[in-house]
Specification:
single chain, about 180 residues, alpha/beta, Rossmann fold, 2 domains, five-stranded parallel β-sheet, 7 helices
């Protein structure tokens, strides 16, 4: 699968270059055709050139392309797809991380659905993604029909036994003190 990053997509962060094969097949418009990075170049023209060069999709942060009649008509005629985000993402690390994480699924979907617009979801961390371990112990205790203290004592006993088996009980003195 070959993906062309349009001019508004950030350069590959240095640490991601170590991914090597994970980013194989991803090219920047600046490397592919620097003359097309002019702000006056219509997006539909990028699609034509990308399709002509054998790219499977254009990756862009500009989701408004999905609402333009000329762009949609050219997509329907060329077999190329557009990959974009449902909500704007301004962090280049997040953009790249998400693109790389979704590449297998992007590949699968683009193989199955030619000439499509693929909107990637934006992951968000918030309080719903936090879990208090003490509260979780309480929930597990309730599920098992035991008291909080009983589940804590059993967990501690299991951990201490494993540390003894490894002859590392002195390595974590705080666990011994409880």
């Amino acid at each position: 699968m070959r993906l062309l990053l349009d001019e508004n997509f950030p350069n590959l962060p240095g640490f991601l270059q170590a991914l090597g094969s994970a980013t194989t097949g991803i090219e920047s418009l600046y490397d592919f055709a620097p003359d097309l990075t002019d702000t006056g170049t219509p997006d539909w023209y990028l699609y034509l050139r990308a399709a002509e060069a054998g790219f499977d999709a254009l990756v862009t942060r500009d989701k408004s392309q999905a609402e333009q009649p000329e762009e949609m008509w050219v997509l329907s005629q060329t077999g190329i797809s557009v990959v974009t985000w449902r909500r704007p993402v301004n962090d280049p690390i997040l953009l790249w991380g998400q693109l790389v994480a979704y590449l297998p699924e992007v590949h699968r979907l683009l193989q199955a659905y030619k000439s499509s617009i693929l909107f990637l979801p934006v992951p968000r961390l918030n309080r719903d993604n936090l879990k208090d371990p003490a509260s979780t112990l309480g929930i597990r205790a309730k599920q098992q029909g035991v008291s909080n203290q009983q589940i804590r004592d059993q967990a501690r006993k299991t951990v201490i036994a494993e540390l003894r088996r490894r002859r590392e009980q002195q390595r974590f003195p705080k666990l011994q003190a409880e």
